[in-house]
Structures are given as C-alpha cells and as structure tokens.
Amino acid sequence: MKRFIKVEKRNHVAVVRMNQSMLNRLNSEVMYELQETMNELQHDASVGSIVFMGEYYKMNGDHRTTSFLREETGRLYQPIHAVTARAIFQRISCSSKQTIALLTNFTFGGGYELALACDVRIAEEPVQLKLTNGMTVSAQEACNMGKVQHVVQKGKGLEYSLALNALEKEA
C-alpha cells in the first residue's frame, strides 16, 4: 500500500494525488511510489488520462543533499537524486496516456519539473509558479508565457481536467 500517493479513477481518468507531509516534497519515497503508480497506470486499459496534483497545498521538490531521520519509521530519508527524477519525468513525458498537471498553489522545484513533463498544465488562481530561472510568476503570467495552458478559478481545476478528458474522447 502506498503511503504518499492516492489514485482515484473517474471515467477513464486516474487522479494521482501526491502528499508527503514535509511540504509535499518529491523525495525518494514519493518518487518511488510515483514510478510504481506510472507502471500500474500505463498498463491499465481503463485509464486514458492521468491528472497529477498535490493533495493539499503545493507540489514541491527537494533535491538538496541533506538527510533527515524519519520520526515515523526511524529510517534515514535521502532526497531523490536529480538523475532519477529526470528518468521518472521522462517516463511521464513519453506516456501513451494524456498527462495533466493540476497546479493548485505555489509550485516549484521538482513539482514544477513534474508539471513540465505533462502534456497539459492547468493552474487554479491564485497559484504562483517558481520557474527554472528562479522567477516567481502568477498563473496568468505563466499562461501568457506559455508555461501553463489553462487558468481556472480556485477549486475548478479537477472538474476542468475531467471535462477536458471528455472532450478528447469525443474528438
């Protein structure tokens, strides 16, 4: 059973919610579960699209080299190596399924890299993104720059993602 990723399936759409209590960091444990989830969803014929989102507040990444001792498990936690993360993001980018990143709050680091790997990026207002050049921009600015394809009202992103998938099926 996965600790940090929950998958919910709705009408041929798999909604992948990532929650790692330390600010939703994409650490080695989360990325391992993400890789397992992608393996399962790639082989699931009932899934046509995959929506990635942070469970509560942000999609974030931590590629620092410091280590932490996990209180719950007593195991040493090491942030994921950037090369491994790139391989997982490449897998998402090359997926045979449509991939959608739903950005619901401040998004940066590995969370932003994951979003870039997706086919479609949807930002809910008032999301902010920290781009790879270090600049922080609003959802609308990101849309104007071509970093995000759609900007929607707060709380409407998942509904919009599901509607987008339904339109793709009809086309």
TrEMBL record:
<dbReference type="InterPro" id="IPR001753">
    <property type="entry name" value="Enoyl-CoA_hydra/iso"/>
</dbReference>
<dbReference type="InterPro" id="IPR029045">
    <property type="entry name" value="ClpP/crotonase-like_dom_sf"/>
</dbReference>
<dbReference type="GO" id="GO:0003824">
    <property type="term" value="F:catalytic activity"/>
</dbReference>
<protein>
    <submittedName>
        <fullName>Enoyl-CoA hydratase/isomerase family protein</fullName>
    </submittedName>
</protein>
<dbReference type="Pfam" id="PF00378">
    <property type="entry name" value="ECH_1"/>
</dbReference>
